[in-house]
Amino acid sequence: MRIALALLALALVPATAGADRITQMTRGERCTYAARLHVAAAYHYTKGLPRAELKLHWHGDETAEEIEFVTRIVDQGYEAMQREAEAGRAAIPLELVGDKAFEACMKEAML
To answer: Do 20 and 66 form a contact (C-beta atoms < 8 A)?
Structure first.
């Protein structure tokens, strides 16, 4: 029995070794996380902080995919705020930024 469990554990290692926290999240969790990142980006944008000056602090155990995901979503948040400003629309409340980002994410086929 122990040998069978050990073999099963070894068989599962390659499948989980490349996994990261983003891919392990459910769709709802990913979209909630993305919405929170959009709100953070919008907050810093409205405070006048340029995207190039926004420092993302990493814990050190992130995968390349996790870093790419966070960076991409923050960039999208800044770009969305910039589009609103260029269109002459007033900044929307941060709560609505999060709601809109969550809804858009949940409607997407892939995040």
So the answer is: yes
Helix, coil or strand: residue 109? coil
- pLDDT at residue 33 greater than cutoff 50: yes
Residue 70 has phi, psi (to 5 degrees) of -60, -45
Structure pTM?
0.77
Token look-up 């705020």 returns 81
How far apart CA 86 and CA 108 sit, in angstroms, is: 25
Q: In this structure, what token pair is assigned to residue 48?
A: 């006048």
The rounded distance, in Å, linking the Cα atoms of 1 and 9 is 12
For the stretch 36-80, pLDDT in tens is: 999 999 999 999 999 999 999 999 999 999 999 999 999 999 999
Q: Which of 54, 99, 62, 58 is nearest to 79 (CA)?
A: 54
Q: Determine contact, residues 74/40, Cβ cutoff 8 Å.
A: yes
